[in-house]
Write a structure and sequence with these properties.
alpha/beta, nine-stranded mixed sheet, two-stranded antiparallel ribbon, 11 helices, globular
C-alpha cells in the first residue's frame, strides 16, 4: 500500500472514531477533584495516582497517552457533556449516538456515513463485524476483522476467491483479498501473535489511514463500560485498553499524525454516586476525548454544573451542559471541510457554536 513520504502533504484529514459502548464514566476517567462533593459521592471509586491537568480536573492513571498528548497541546478534553438523551437505555442511546438523530431507530444511516456522502471522500473502514450504524450510508464502508481463515494455504484462497468474485455480495471482499495476496501483504488476515484486541485493530487502522490510496475514516468499536459492579478493576481495564490503542495508533501513524483526529463516543455517562457494589448505574453527563496533531491547540472545555444534590439531573446524574453533537459537528465541519450549516441540515441535528473554533 503506497504511503506518504516524509514532508508530503495528504489530501484529507484522517479521522479515527472510537465507540465506547456501555456508558463510559466521565467522572471516573476525568474526575473533578476540585469539586468538594466528589469525595462524598465516590468514597471507593477515586483512583490512586491521578494525573494532574488544570488543577480542577485530573485524569485516570490508566490514561497515560491521553495525558501526554494533553501536555503536548494535542488533546481536547470535554466534560459535563453528552447527547440530549436521558432515557438511559443502551440500545436507544447507542442508536442516537451513531445516527445523530434524537429519535431512536429513525435512520438507517449514521452521521459519519452521511458526512462521507456529502464530502465525497473515499471509503471508510470499520474495524469490526458488521459495519456499525455510524458508518452506514450510500458510500461504501469496508470492514477489517482478522479471522481463522488466514491459516489456510495460499492455494486454498486461489480456489475460493473466484467463487467470491462471482457473487455480488462477496465481490468486494474477493478483490480486496486478491490485491493483498498479490502484494504479499495480509493486513486483513490473522498473523502469528495478532488477535482482535483493540490495540491490534488500532494499529491496523493506522496502516490503512496513512496510505495514499486508503480510507480517510476508521471506526473502532469497544465494549465493556457498563460497570454496575467492581468498577475500579473493570472500568480501569477498559480505559487502559483504549489509551493503549490510542498510543499504538499514534505511533503507527508516524508523520501523518499531524493530519489526524481521534474522538471518543459513548451513549451516556454514569450516576454521580457509586452504588452498593462498587459500581455505577446508567447516568447522563460524561466526558469526551479528542486527540491529534490536527488540533490547533489542546485544552479543557467544560461548563461545570457541580455535583451538589440540587445540581444533579433528577438528583442522581451529572448534568450535560454541552450537547455532544456540537463537538461532533465541529469535527465533521473541520475534518470533511463541510460548512457548519450544511452539517446541521444534512448530517447532524445540532446547533453550531463558536465554542470549538479555537481548536479546529
Amino acid at each position: 500500500m503506497p504511503e506518504l513520504a516524509l514532508g508530503q502533504e495528504p489530501q484529507e484529514t484522517r479521522l479515527l472514531v472510537i465507540l465506547l459502548r456501555g456508558g463510559m464514566d466521565g467522572l471516573f476517567a476525568m474526575p473533578p477533584v476540585g469539586d468538594k462533593s466528589l469525595q462524598g459521592l465516590r468514597r471507593n471509586l477515586r483512583p490512586d495516582g491521578l494525573q494532574k491537568l488544570d488543577g480542577f480536573f485530573a485524569l485516570h492513571p490508566a490514561l497515560k497517552n491521553i495525558h501526554g498528548s494533553y501536555h503536548e497541546g494535542q488533546a481536547l478534553l470535554v466534560h459535563s457533556t453528552s447527547l440530549p438523551y436521558t432515557g438511559r437505555s443502551h440500545l436507544e442511546g447507542q442508536d442516537i449516538m451513531e445516527s445523530g438523530i434524537m429519535r431512536p431507530y429513525a435512520s438507517a444511516s449514521g452521521w459519519l456515513g452521511k458526512a462521507l456522502e456529502v464530502s465525497g471522500l473515499s471509503a471508510a473502514v470499520a474495524m469490526s463485524l458488521p459495519v456499525p450504524l455510524i458508518l452506514r450510508g450510500k458510500r461504501y464502508a469496508g470492514t477489517h476483522y482478522p479471522t481463522w481463515i488466514s491459516n489456510m494455504p495460499k492455494e486454498a484462497y486461489q480456489k475460493i476467491l473466484p467463487i467470491w468474485a462471482a457473487d455480488s455480495d462477496l465481490a468486494d471482499f474477493s478483490g480486496q483479498f486478491s490485491a493483498e495476496l498479490t502484494k504479499r501483504m495480509l493486513p486483513n488476515l490473522r498473523v502469528p501473535g495478532q488477535d482482535n484486541s483493540i490495540v491490534d485493530l488500532a494499529k491496523s487502522a493506522a496502516i490503512r489511514l496513512r496510505g495514499l490510496d486508503g480510507p480517510r475514516v476508521a471506526v473502532l468499536d469497544h465494549v465493556g463500560f457498563d460497570t454496575h459492579a467492581s468498577q475500579p478493576g473493570q472500568h480501569s481495564d477498559r480505559l487502559r485498553e483504549v489509551d493503549d490503542a490510542i498510543g499504538t495508533f499514534k505511533q503507527a501513524m508516524g508523520p501523518v499524525w499531524k493530519d489526524t483526529l481521534v474522538v471518543t463516543l459513548t451513549e451516556f455517562g454514569r450516576t454521580a454516586a457509586e452504588n452498593g457494589s462498587w459500581g455505577t448505574d446508567h447516568g447522563w453527563g460524561t466526558s469526551i476525548f479528542v486527540l491529534g496533531g490536527k488540533l490547533k491547540k489542546g485544552g479543557i472545555v467544560a461548563d461545570w454544573p457541580g455535583l451538589k444534590k440540587n445540581a444533579l439531573f433528577e438528583g442522581r446524574d451529572l448534568k450535560a451542559t454541552l450537547d455532544a453533537r456540537t463537538l461532533y459537528g465541529a469535527i465533521v465541519s473541520s475534518a470533511f471541510k463541510i460548512d457548519a450549516e450544511q452539517v446541521r441540515k444534512e448530517i447532524l441535528e445540532y446547533e453550531p457554536s463558536s465554542k470549538f473554533d479555537a481548536y479546529f
